[in-house]
Amino acid sequence: MTTTSNQANLKELLEDQQYTQLPQVGDIVKGTIIDLAKNEIKVDINGITSGVIRGKEAYDESGEYNNLKIGDEVEATVLEQENETGDLELSLRYAGHKKAWSRLNTFRESNEIVKVKVTDANKGGLIIKLGNIDGFLPVSQLNPEHYPRIQGGDKNKILEKLKSFAGQELEAKVITADEKDEKLIVSEKAAWEESQKDVIGTFKVGDTVEGEVTAVTDFGVFVKFDNNLEGLVHISEIAWQRIDDPKDFIKVGQKVKAEIIGIEGSKIFLSMKKLMTDPWANVAERYKIGDTVEGQVLKVNPFGLFVELDKEIHGLAHVSELSNQPITDPLEIAKPGDTLKFKILSVEPEHHRLGLSLRAMNKSNTPTAKTTPEEIATETVKEEVSEIKPTASTEPEIKAEKTDQPIEAVEEGKE
Q1: CB hemisphere CA count around 2 (13 angstroms)
Q2: What is the tens place of the pLDDT at every residue in 248-306?
Q3: CA 236 to CA 242: how far, in whole Å?
Q4: Which ranges of 231-352 would DSSP assign to H, the alpha helix?
Q5: Assigned domain for 104 exists
Q6: CATH number, residue 289
Q7: Statement to judge: residues 286 and 268 lie in one domain
Q8: Where are the strands (E) in 167-207, listed by range?
């Protein structure tokens, strides 16, 4: 029985290719470290042969074999079947490269949040390292807190801000892991959205929040609330009156209250003016069509003048209502800071619009309300036609030209 059992075991060993055929170049083999030298690692391959890992081939991108010791098991790629000493020439570098990219793709597929280390930056984003693989974190994929909101978009200041992250560890998600092109791209924003998903879910449109202004941009302000959540107050939602530059109205660090008016994924949209009384609600009680009002020109555009009547109510004097004469540039009539008197042409509280006329101040009659460009154009044509009607002094000449008789005969007939 013992002899039969030994024969069976021997047959199994002979049938096993790893005992009957040496590994081929490119194969990945498993082995046990039997010796460690400064620039050389000796590996036993299943007791049938040995291999050696030398120099740069001992570098492992996966990071799995950073602190090897005798007795550890390793996987290596065969570079040569037999070197000058008869050993397999092996590489941890090739096997580690495969393992490293395989692991990155596992992170990508599982949506796992990983830690990456920032090593440098350029104008497009951050250079990072995940394990021993270099990658990139684009500016657009930074979370709201780290996004470089630089007034005016100064590229040098943006780069300075990005370089300040060097040496830091950030949480991110792998969004691209292409081994062939060695392209690794990660997103901090995606990781932030994942971690904030449950928190954002506790809020709904209509809720009032209180927070601190973290950034002021040309298009609005960002408000941080509830520890790590951040929302945007668009320039049109800061106040009821017209605002040209949010910096003139609000400062970084200021405490504000706002109402949530929209939630789209991780994006939260806020409104400060929703919590303020709408000054246009009773505007018709203060300003009436035909009234003469005094206002300061705030801004001059090709289509007219924006005029401040009071702190909350602004009106528009359309270019067609600035002068009786055609003008090519409203700056010919007024400039920002000028104080002028206007006639009110229209009051539309529901649309937050108030129409003004400067040219009406030069007429004796009170103009009727013109609420549309078509009406304004029609009225202008009527006025121009009335100005070229023939006068009484020209009528005799017209009659004289129409008669067939000489002028002298006409005069004799009169006598």
Answers
A1: 0
A2: 889 999 999 999 999 988 889 999 999 998 888 889 888 999 999 999 999 999 999 99
A3: 8
A4: 283-286
A5: no
A6: 2.40.50.140
A7: no
A8: 169-178, 183-187
